[in-house]
Design a protein that fits this description.
Elements: H1 2-23, H2 29-40, H3 44-62
Helix pairs in contact: 1-2, 1-3, 2-3
């Protein structure tokens, strides 16, 4: 169970890192979600939730 949590956290961190790389290239959010969907084999709506959760956590840490 803990391994699943660790793997999910690593996956989410990789998705957020890749999202940040792509956003600086000038792509729109929806395009990035679709590209990441193909790259990580999960739905774009799930990717959007992961990115939003990571952004929220990042904002909380900055305060």
């Amino acid at each position: 169970m803990q391994r699943d949590t660790e793997l999910r956290a690593r996956r989410d961190a990789a998705i957020f890192k890749r999202f940040n790389e792509m956003i600086t290239s000038g792509l729109q959010y929806q395009q990035i979600y679709c590209l990441l969907e193909d790259e990580f084999y999960i739905s774009s709506s799930t990717i959007k939730q992961i990115v939003l959760r990571a952004m929220h956590a990042h904002d909380i840490q900055r305060k």
